[in-house]
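Sequence in, structure out. Go.
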Amino acid sequence: MSKSALVIVDVQNDYFPGGAWELDGQVEAAQNVKRLLEDSRSKKTPIIHIQHVVEAGNAPFFNAGTEGVKIHDDVLPQDGEPLVTKQFANSFLETNLKELLDEQGIEHLVVVGSMSHNCIDATVRAAVDLGYTATIIGDACATLDMEHNGETIPAKYVHGAFMASLAFAYGKVVSTDEYLAA
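Output:
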């Protein structure tokens, strides 16, 4: 079996109720991330935290120096758990993520976090393009309603479409319970 790492993408305060860019189901997804994080820590599975930071300070969320950019208290990194700061949806773009994974001999990523349609999608696709395999924990990811051609697409359909797309060619999509039971 290949060596795995838990990659936690953008579980940051701005995505929670009261934040600048609240996601549908973020609280529930974060509770599943917390369960996965506790499991990984107990098994000494490598964990890498990803934090999106907008340095220019002109974005609708994740602006540097704000409360919203901080990693949520439920999933804070502990000593020895790397924190990768990124400025793009793809967690590999202009970061040291690949180097951190390769230094540890990681071949498989277990990806959780937000947003399903943006940073999760971009990170998983980039990971597979770089030669890693991936498992996406669907109920440990969250997104929001989107609009296309004047029609609102509910978050559950946005999330479902992206999970189905990733499962089609980029990785295995499972629930937290399925993953923890395996």
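Check: The chain has five helices and eight strands. Strands lie at 4-9, 47-52, 83-86, 108-114, 133-142, 146-148, 151-153, 172-174.
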